[in-house]
Amino acid sequence: MIARFKELARRLKAELLALSLAARDPRTPWYARAWALLVLAYALSPIDLIPDFVPVLGYLDDLLLVPAGLWLALRLLPPAVLADARREAAAHPRRLGRSRWGLALMGLIYLGLLILGGLWWQGRGR
């Protein structure tokens, strides 16, 4: 069972690397590139939408959101671009680092939620 999870994690990392390479390919349509960059930013962000210390839900976003976003991103890519990116990722595997863009994205989401929460709270007092 643990071996299966390790294999799944290895494949997920390889697909994220391939997605990173495909997002930089000029043959990738703008909408696929935008979605791929959002998925990569979230997957590589040091901050999660739901923090990991929250019981069950903390890991649920990692187990559902990242694979679902990755699945959609891979479906949006042209097959030739995806095949070339997978071939390059397999030939030159490397580690993807943390994403500063992902950190900024999650920070903006949290800031937006705080602002919406504050506006909602102010509206309740009237």
Main attributes of the structure:
transmembrane helix; DUF1232; mainly alpha; transmembrane; membrane; single chain; 126 residues
Quick structural summary:
This protein is 75% helix and 0% strand.
Write the layout of secondary structure elements.
Elements: H1 2-23, H2 30-44, H3 57-76, H4 79-91, H5 100-124
Helix pairs in contact: 1-2, 1-3, 1-4, 2-3, 2-5
Account of the protein in words:
The chain contains five helices and no strands. The protein has one domain (2-124). With 126 residues, it is mainly α. The relative contact order is 0.17. Helix content is 75%, strand content 0%.
Helix content: over 70%
Largest sheet: none
Beta-strand residue percentage: under 5%
Count the domains: 1
Q: Overall 3D geometry?
A: globular
